[in-house]
Amino acid sequence: MTSSVSKGCFVFKPSAKKRRKTPTVEDYFTHGSEDTENSKLRFRNYQILWEKMKADTELLQDELNRKILDSLLAFIRKSVSTFQRGTDDWASRMRAHEIPTAALVLGVNVPDHDMTFQCLSDQLQQSVTPFVVSVQATECAALNNMMQRVLERLMGTSVSVGNEEEPEQRSTNVNQKRVHCSLITLCNWYKAVTKKAASGTPSKKRTSVGKDMQQHPPIVVIFKDLEAFNSRVLQDFILICSRYVEQLPLMFVFGIATSPSTIQHMLPHSVSSLLCIELFQSLSCTQHLASVIDKVILTSQFPFKPSGKVLQVLVSIFLYHDFSVRNFIKGLQLALLEHFHSQPLSVLCCKKEAALVHATELSHRDVERLQQLPSFMRYVEEQGPQEQVELLTSDDHVKEVCQKLLNDLHKYHKNYYPILRCLHILTSSLPKYPLGKQIRELHISCLEKNVWENEEYASAMQLLRMMAKDELTSALKMCAEILKPGKTTKMRAALLQLDNLLAKFDQPDDLAAAENAAGEDLTSRGKGLQKKTDLFQLQKTLLEMKKSRRTKKMSQFEILRDQALEFIDSLVRSHLAPPESQPLYEVCYYSSSAVLRRHLNATPRTSIQTALSNPYHYLKNENLLAEDGTVSNAAPDICIVYKLHLECGRLINLYDWLEAYATVVSAAEGMDPDSADFGKVDELKHARFIQAVSELEFLGFIKSTKQKTDHVSRLTWGGC
Amino acid sequence: MAAQLQHIGYDDKKLQRVMERLPCRDVQASMLLALMGEPEQCSYPSIFIYGHRATGKSHVIHTLLKELELPYAIVSCVECVSVGLLFEQVLLSLFGSDSVSLLSRSPSLSDFVRVYKQLCVQASAKQTRYIVLDRAELLRNMETNLLPAFLRLQELVEDNVTVIMLSEIVWDKFRPNTGCFEPLLLHFPDYSKGELQQILSEDSHPSYSPELYSAFINILLGVFYSVCRDLRELRHLAALNFYKFVEPLEQGKVKEGDTHKLWRNIEPHLKKAMQTVYLREVSSVQWEQQLQMEEKEAGAVRGLSAHAHVELPYYSKFLLIAAYLASYNPARTDKRFFLKHHGKIKKTNFLKKHEKTSNHLLGPKPFPLDRLLAIFYSVVDSRVAPTASVFCQISSLVTLQLLNQVGHDDQLDAPKYKCAVSLDFILAISRTVSFDMVKYLYDFL
Predict the structure, then answer these.
(1) How far apart (Å, rounded) are the C-alpha atoms in residues A630 and B37?
(2) Is there a contact between B242 and A91 if contact means CB atoms under 8 Å apart?
(3) pTM
(4) Across the A/B interface, how many CB contacts are shorter than 8 Å?
(5) One GO molecular function term (chain B) (predicted)?
(6) Paired residues of A279 in beta bridges
(7) Which of A437, A635, A642, B32 lies in disulfide reach of A433, CB 3.0 to 4.6 Å?
(8) What's the CA gap between B390 and A297, in Å, rounded?
(9) Complex ipTM, two decimals?
(10) Are B259 and B215 in contact (CB under 8 A)?
(11) A625 domain residue, yes or no
């Protein structure tokens, strides 16, 4: 087979047998852990949890997109029907033929849009038209590329651009009619296809599509990222399309990341007048994030919880850097994976029933780990001496207690989230949002410490004490709604109490009665006043009256309000304690935010500097270990050169540098410092030095300069 | 009128029909006919016709050639993404579908000439052939020999062929450096107001009298003539607003003769149309809906430019602010704005003579990445690690066209950028992060 005349390079793929089995994700996960069973179990936990999370978030995103997609589909259907109406009436004959265009504003994170567009084209293909094509700016650098992409994807065949030679194809089928990349081709193809569809079997795959749709299904072209398109290319494409708009029911969808006025910036009036643009605005990405957090994090459904710091890292990456919900979910996945990978006790982090079963099956090692958990140790200390001994010696007893604690932890979560929501509802309408506008801010502050010890909490409560009746009752009613689905006894009791309070708020009669009583009291005191004649006495009674009036001023509503707030306060104090207070919280909470930050928010510059100044950090070679701030002689050349250059000023004399380098390297080679050759520059050292210097230049630490001969200039400041 | 159009060689009836279809363009049409001469006569090699949009260039040529049944090919250059496509379309319309197979896969000009000659011999025509190239200005961007070759195609193919070029720009902008054959120039002037009125009145609504429609057109032109003389656009606007115009008639409030009342009814709508639908702020479909909805919900549809707000990540906002400052402040003044102890330096000390004009009038200036980052770190209030995502944001700002990269796209070493947003935009952005932009701008010192 290889006995060909021509010279060439042949690739032989190894046969399937020889090839080693590629390791699966699970292998990577369990690699390096001493307890394979345990880590396999953890991996399974992780998979189950992630699948569920993924499905949930996808469902949520579908739901969020639905509204905008529905209106878009309606728009496209409507445009189809106007196309079909044709040139019958006067107005449509007279009107310029515009291409219906939907401007879809999707927010600045472009990679996030892929899913929306996928969803859109799927739905279009299902219910409106089989002819949907999406193009991206990167594949449409020139007009002919763009035409080629559009035609290829629509017609499902390869279309020649005309200027590339494809000799193979030509030799094989000479008779085949060449397909040129023009809209005439598309027009003919479209006519043929629609004719076939009309005469052929209509039950083919578009049975659900309406009859009128079948005759002239529109051709929808989706421009995924309008801003990135070359405006010249886009203009030409639109001009060409507009020439055929009477024969082809063309339709555009513009994916816009910034604002709709970009269309006007990109297209001159002569081109934009060919379009009939309608605007569709999607949900803002911050709202999107809020609903994702609501669904995935603020729920007791998932046993995995990110700690306050971790959540803060994820949210700040979102808010400060990318606005990408997809990245947020990816980050959450990473946290999930890290948690199950690094925490052996995360076997217990799964559904309650499964967790209880796993708790009984804990190995001795795991029990030891359990006993070493800080939260468990704290729990042990709180127990009586007898119990303490039991907990530290008997594995079985620990397992039993562990089950009980797991149960408690689940209950804690079940109570925590409804109360969090209630508190958020009450405080989110306050001026200046003392506890945060978004529920995630409140959640984070609750995770960090006792929320009721915050100053903000106190001020929020003070503001709540001044709330008007209708506002307060409506908020409390909403709280009752939230508490309703709660199944724990505590939640039910809370609901009952809240309902009682609400019922009292609704009784206006009591209020009047109470006011009457207060009035009577006042007049009786007034009588007492008349008797007194002493000035001092008078002053005293007046002061008393004033004081009492102030206290008396409390109407029935105010008393009730105080009661309600006290009730809420008690709920907060009993249920919103931070998770650190719960024993075994380490099982569910992932808290190494630093790891997450390092992975998600890479700092290339810092990494390079660490590598150069402390090579041991990456190379893990014992020889490189050195005292703080110094570099061992055995370090790679570039590290030595880097270290030496830190000692220089803005301009570095290359020769001095070389000398210094040679001295260090000679010391590393173990030369006798007193010998004549010590620190002498030989060819090899010279070459190594040149290489290291050019590497530094490549990394951007130095550059050549014309200011002084034989000098280079430093590009960074500071040093040792 | 038709009396002037007695041209030998053409059927009088046909000429009559042509003239009916070409209102207000009879001077140009007769000139063209004179140039074309009798069908069998040899004609001038190339004619260049120019005039603004919608002045009837294509329409006149198309009608003439079609109605007089002459052999012709009309090609729009904007469609021809490759030269091959252009040649193919010409051959297709002149010689039928078989001719195309003679062309090679990616034909050159000489291929085209060869094939043309070959086909000419086979089917030699007595009449002049016409090749019409619409939007001929695009020929300049194609291969350099194309335009000169088309101008003297008659000589090259040795056939009685005339190339007619249509364009919106004048011939002076076409003339190549190397010189070329000069075509005959023919200008199509804009339609005057009266001519527009005459043409637009012709397509009256079948259920209303032509006089009424003519009155409507009169009102329409009164509003729009000052901003728009594009026939196509005016016709579109007429169609969109006519139903609103006749609405009082339909309801029986006004009689047909009462033009003043009709005018009072329609004028505000037309004025509004000028600001919205004409500028494509509001699409025509939305406009029609809006008209049907009555004044109750007037202003319900917001134009495209009303949605100027852009949501950006926090650091992107500061990067954009930094880019704006770097683009509009001279680099010398950075010290004054971003150093803590700059001392008191007045603007007059800085002022150089040529900098007296506002930087905002001169437009954004390019700045290197280093300067952008230096300003960024000093304006952002918290400590920011130089993470990869900060750099990512710069490139995503470039794709969003809020920043422009100056020079090559693949420049790795010290790329330069320009800020591409307006002052209003950046002020809105800086308000959201409560950054006092004006305090940092040299122009507003």
Answers:
(1) 95
(2) yes
(3) 0.81
(4) 167
(5) DNA replication origin binding
(6) A103
(7) A437
(8) 27
(9) 0.89
(10) yes
(11) yes
